[in-house]
Structure formats: C-alpha cells, structure tokens
Amino acid sequence: xxxxxxxxxxxxxxxxxxxxxxxxxxxxxxxxxxxxxxxxxxxxxxxxxxxxxxxxxxxxxxxxxxxxxxxxxxxxxxxxxxxxxxxxxxxxxxxxxxxxxxxxxxxxxxxxxxxxxxxxxxxxxxxxxxxxxxxxxxxxxxxxxxxxxxxxxxxxxxxxxxxxxxxxxxxxxxxxxxxxxxxxxxxxxxxxxxxxxxxxxxxxxxxxxxxxxxxxxxxxxxxxxxxxxxxxxxxxxxxxxxxxxxxxxxxxxxxxxxxxxxxxxxxxxxxxxxxxxxxxxxxxxxxxxxxxxxxxxxxxxxxxxxxxxxxxxxxxxxxxxxxxxxxxxxxxxxxxxxxxxxxxxxxxxxxxxxxxxxxxxxxxxxxxxxxxxxxxxxxxxxxxxxxxxxxxxxxxxxxxxxxxxxxxxxxxxxxxx
Length: 417
Description:
2 domains; mainly alpha; 417 residues; Cytochrome C Oxidase, Chain A; globular; 14 helices; disordered C terminus
C-alpha cells in the first residue's frame, strides 16, 4: 500500500480554486492574501511618513475619506492606530503568509518529491483560518473607536480596556490568536511532510537548503506560537470577561495580576520570530546563489549545521532575555549567533564567485540580500571610556536640538521627561 494516495481531480470550480486541497493552489491563495495585506501595510507606512513630513496637514486624495472627523489630517489617536497596525500587519499578515504560507506550500512537496502535503484538508483549513484572521483585522478598522492602538507589542495595561477600550482592540487580539492557530496547523503539516514523504533517495543531507529553512522554521512555529496564542487568549479574557491576568494597580481589584507576565509570554515568541522569518530566506538565497553559480552549494553541510544551530540556540534563555530589558530582567546576549552568521556569510561569499549570469534579477536580489545589511549598518568606534568620541558628540550636538517636540507625530511631550 502506498504511503500517500493520489487525490481525485476536483469536479467544480469552487472545489478547484476556492476550497482546494492542492498545495500549489493553496500556496497561490496564501500569496495573494499576503500581497493584499502587504499593500495595506505599505499604505499605513506611507501615512506614517506623511505625518512625519507634513504634521497636521490633510492627507492628499484619501485623507477626507479615512479621517473625515479631522478634516483629513492624522491626529495623535490616528497615529497610534496606524503605527500599531502597520507593525502587526507586516509581520503576521503579510511577510508570514508570503514567506512561509506561499513558499512553504509550493516548494516543499515539489522539492522533496511528494505528491502533496501530509494533511491536505488541514492545509486548506490553515488557509481559511488565516483568512478569518485577516477579516478580523479589517473589521477592527470599522469599529467605533478604531482598531488597536497599543503598539504592535500590545503591552498591558495599554492593551486592556483601561488603555484602549472598544471593540477594535479586541478584534485585533482575536486576530492574533486565530492566525496563531493557522500557523500551528501549517507547521505541523510541514514538519510531517518533510519527515514522512521524502522521495526514495532524498536523504536529510540531500534536501535543498530551502526545505531545510522552511522545516526548521516550522519547528520554531510549533514550539513558540502557542505561547503567543495563550497570551492573546488571556488578554481577550481580561478585555471581555473581567479577569485580571494582566491588570494591576489601581485598575485591579482583589490584588490583580501582573502586566510583566504578558511581556514574558510575548517575547518568548517575539525574539524567535526574527529567526522564524530569516531561516527560509537563508535557504532560498542559498539555493538561488548555488543555481546561478552552476555548482553545488559551497559547504552544504556547514550551512545546514549553522541553520540548525540558530534553531537550537533560539530555544535557550539568552534569546528570550535579550528584549524585555526595560522590566529590569538581566540580558545575556547569545554567543552562538556570531559564528553562525560568519558561517553563512562565508557560504554566500564563496557562492558569489564565478556566477554564470550576473544580470538575472533573481541573482541580483539575492546578492543585495547578502551584501546590503553589513554595508548599511556602519558604527563608529567608542573611545577608551566606552562613550562616543568628541567629534561624534559635537556632530550630534550640531545636528540635534536639546529638546524635541513630539506632539506633531502623535506623541505627547510628557511621555518623554
């Protein structure tokens, strides 16, 4: 008996293009859903930039349509909502569906020789669960008090009813919880497919690096996204059912909860999210450079090992402790990341030698991905005391005023004592 059965051909338009279980169709659906929200998030980014460039001025063309109560101008309340939703949409509703949902669904079965995903129906349910979360995001903008405005990290107490009351914030939290369910379903599918449905001869160390990146990302998703979902669920309880998991101080009764607990739960997934999104890119870029070099990937085993080390070291406490430093939690940077980054940079540098066709767009894009980050982040050496050099101090003093007015960009001066 064959391990993976052949699916019958769909018999209707809806079964083929809407409620499809074909991994290629689902990949395209994830792609279009992500691209639409990428454009949505990009529009929010342009509104942020307009407010920076022309504070209190009406937004041209669409300003009176989206901000009629303020004459088309971005108010401080609008700015907080725009900034919050831009971050959430770009991370969870644009990059994730395109990079993991689309590329993962399309590439994994084809690259390992499988007919489809291990669980085709679960794959379809993952897509529609994600579309439900996108619908919740759109609905939040139609709510009476607007969408979420507590920052993309959604820290309590600002994200509770005390800081941002209204249905919009609740819908955003619900959307994060629902998209987490979609990610978990997809991750289980990817992991099982790679383990169980590789073609004969497709051993672990023969898999394309793209598959390695997507598979390791799926492991991190299955481990960490449930923590984000639990944080969102507890926050939903606080907003709707009177619980006090994250409500404290004068807003609480009978002792209350701990707002810092949310930060712990959030950053357990928040910092690994960086590697969740970069691992597939490393795999894809590695395969593209190898293809245009017309030779096998340079030190394939080392590249697999370095990506695996990133996945393993992400599980450690240092990765979690890096970010919530305002809480007083001691931060210990991970020493493993630097050797891993050097290994990948060496791999990329060797692949760029003797490229067959340097004019191809795919190669040029991959080349920029590898070489722009180190070029675009210059730093000035500190003095022996660890403080900026005098020349740098004088340059900063000449360019920056001693006191800045943040009122025009939606923030109060009292926020920055």
